[in-house]
């Protein structure tokens, strides 16, 4: 069963520190879900900081409350899940998310949601397919999934990676070449070895701040989707579920075969600027992409509601054009 984890960034003006937030969450959980036996623990982490964090032990697993320097507007609280899996993991995540909402945690434009997906069974060819699939709709995906834009914390891939996807060269990349490309370097094994050294020794390397963070392969044994953001001012359990389902589906789709396939959903800046692709066309492309990922049927009805029906497609078309210009301009 595919494992996953989630990091939910939030902010508060009501609580003085994260221990107070943890205790408020515990009090709420023990009223609504007493069988979970929530209680406070302290987790010590040596990397990247030698620091103790408050954690909520819920159903025997720790949800850690960390700080996050990118979050502004009050007390920054990033709730980091344990390793989860399946429907049980989704339900536990939704319980915590609803508890955050119930005790008054807020969301602003500086808050994001990150999803990690386990990749222990993936081979090099699968990672190439994952990059290809993501790159084919990246400007559109970032516009749909991140309402406030993402800034410098969830950027698109460089134009060079996009070119290697479109001309088919990525189909023969080794993992070292892929590491070099992720690091915005010429894709050679030598550069790849240097990139891997940087990834494993420098936690906050700039290469990790992509919508699809592949640095996590070498740092955590996962891939990280950093592109998500709640659309409202409070944490939303239904949207969080959709974010996880999308991320897991991306990895499962890449795992289906080792055969390389050219992107099927791509478009260019010229397509957007000329009017050949308008907002209704983007909606159709996105819908077909979700079908391609297998996100059909009643199990994914909530996902389609949040990722298709409740979207402002005029805004998405404008944002997609801006992001496509960024990608094709080769900006970093």
Short structural description:
This protein is α+β, with helices and mostly antiparallel strands and 332 residues long.
Give the SSE layout:
Blueprint (H helix, E strand, L loop, with lengths): L2 E10 L5 H15 L6 E7 L5 E8 L2 E6 L8 E6 L3 E2 H17 L10 E6 L5 H22 L13 H8 L8 H8 L6 H13 L10 E2 L2 H4 L2 E7 L8 H19 L13 H5 L5 H14 L8 H9 L3 H16 L4
Antiparallel strand pairs: 1-5, 1-6, 1-7, 2-3, 3-4, 4-5, 7-9, 8-9
Structure description:
It is a single chain. With 332 residues, the chain is an alpha+beta fold. It folds into 2 domains: 7-105, TATA-Binding Protein (2-Layer Sandwich), CATH 3.30.310; 118-328, no CATH class. 45% of the residues lie in helices and 16% in strands. It has 12 helices and 9 strands. The protein has helices spanning 18-32, 86-102, 124-145, 159-166, 175-182, 189-201, 216-219, 237-255, 269-273, 279-292, 301-309, 313-328; strands at 3-12, 39-45, 51-58, 61-66, 75-80, 84-85, 113-118, 212-213, 222-228. Strands 1, 2, 3, 4, 5, 6, 7, 8 and 9 form a 9-stranded antiparallel β-sheet that branches. Helix 3 packs across helix 4. The chain is globular. The mean pLDDT is 92.
User: Element order, helices and strands?
Assistant: EHEEEEEHEHHHHEHEHHHHH
Strand content: 15-25%
Annotation, overall tally of beta strands: 9
Largest sheet: 9 strands, antiparallel
Number of domains as seen in the coordinates: 2
Average pLDDT taken over every residue: 92
What overall geometry do the principal axes of the alpha carbons give? globular
Helicity range? 40-55%
Round the Cα radius of gyration to an integer and report it. Answer: 20 Å
Q: Structural class, from helix and strand content? A: alpha+beta
Query: What's the number of helices?
Result: 12
| N-C termini distance | 36 Å
Q: Poorly predicted ranges (pLDDT <50, ≥5 residues)? A: none
């Amino acid at each position: 069963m595919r494992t996953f984890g989630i990091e939910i960034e939030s902010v508060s003006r009501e609580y003085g520190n994260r221990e107070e937030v943890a205790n408020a969450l515990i009090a709420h959980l023990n009223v609504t879900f007493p069988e979970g036996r929530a209680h406070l623990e302290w987790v010590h982490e040596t990397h990247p900081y030698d620091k103790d964090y408050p954690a909520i032990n819920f159903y025997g697993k720790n949800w850690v409350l960390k700080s996050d320097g990118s979050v502004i507007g009050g007390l920054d609280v990033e709730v980091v899940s344990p390793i989860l899996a399946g429907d049980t993991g989704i339900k536990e995540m939704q319980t915590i998310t609803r508890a955050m909402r119930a005790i008054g945690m807020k969301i602003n434009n500086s808050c994001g949601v990150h999803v990690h997906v386990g990749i222990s069974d993936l081979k090099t060819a699968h990672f190439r397919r994952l990059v290809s699939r993501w790159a084919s709709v990246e400007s559109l995906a970032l516009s749909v999934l991140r309402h406030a834009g993402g800034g410098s914390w969830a950027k698109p891939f460089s134009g060079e990676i996009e070119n290697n996807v479109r001309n088919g060269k990525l189909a023969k990349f080794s993992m070292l070449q892929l590491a070099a490309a992720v690091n915005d370097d010429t894709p050679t094994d030598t550069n790849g070895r240097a990139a891997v050294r940087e990834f494993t020794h420098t936690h906050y390397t700039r290469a990790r701040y992509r919508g699809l963070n592949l640095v996590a392969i070498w740092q955590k044994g996962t891939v990280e989707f950093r592109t998500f953001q709640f659309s409202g001012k409070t944490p939303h359990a239904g949207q969080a579920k959709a974010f996880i389902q999308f991320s897991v589906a991306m990895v499962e789709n890449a795992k289906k075969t080792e055969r390389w396939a050219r992107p099927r959903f791509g478009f260019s800046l010229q397509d957007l600027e000329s009017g050949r692709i308008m907002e209704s066309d983007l909606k159709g492309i996105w819908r077909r992409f979700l079908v391609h990922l297998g996100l059909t049927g009643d199990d994914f009805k909530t996902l389609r509601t949040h990722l298709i029906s409740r979207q402002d497609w005029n805004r998405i078309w404008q944002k997609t054009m801006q992001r496509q210009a960024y990608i094709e301009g080769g900006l970093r």
